[in-house]
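Example record

One chain of 291 residues, shown exactly as stored in the release files.
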Amino acid sequence: MNELYHKLIEAYSEQNLNRITGKLIELYRNRNYGEIRCIANKISRYVTIDEEKDAKCFSKLIMLYHPDRGAFFKQAINSSFFNNNYHDLQQFSHILLIDDIDTIKVVPVDDDIDYCPEYIWDEVQDDGYSFVNFDTDENYEDFNPDDMEHSFYNALKLLEFGTLNVSFPLWYMQDYDELELAESGLSSLDGVEYCKNVISLDLNGNEITDISELWNLKQLEELYLANNQIGYIDALCSLKKLRILDLSNNQIDDLSPLFQLEQLQYLILVGNKIPKNQIDVLMRKNVIVTF
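Predicted structure tokens for this chain:
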């Protein structure tokens, strides 16, 4: 137990956590997703990262090994050791399983390769968009199904039914508390505004530029927007319950809309050109930032 304790204290040092997160970021920037997945599988005995999407798997690993969490881990390790709790001490041992992370070879990304998947939209043969049932007291007059190609609304229908040619009343969307529409070919978020009770929303890996429809999702706590084409994030300033936010690989250069989010804990900014003084503002508010 004494030997394990000293190994863990060393493993959770700021220097070692910087080494781990640095390698993770390097792998992610070069789209070495298979290697990231292997790291997640290595530690699965102690930590379950059951994420199907690559960007979300990366964000979970970053949150696990971010240097800013070192003090928290050391405090928990000290508590387990001094209380002679070997079982709890072992739960931190996953970091020892990736001690050889430096040996993982990073393969530089080839810009000539098209990494965009063949979206299911190309296989859909149904035509027409007359699927919205408006028999409700709520006002949906601004909702135009004729403008919904590659929209959030249609992507959700494909996810649930595998076809667009079904009736899907808008008020049904209030029943969702978790949604994953990563890599779904989205170019528009039309329809997402009706998911008023969603808590976790994964929109990684799409072609989204405008996120204004997120404005009224007041219950949202986790939001994943990595690998899109987002420039402005003004709509996020109203999401007061937001705790986890992944904005990696977008076109963002202004974080000021996030300054009033008092519940924000984790922010991933890899692949954006953000002024350092704005990052410092968030870090002073105890937000764990990866950039």
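Notes: The beta strands are 178-180, 200-202, 222-224, 244-246, 266-268, 288-290.
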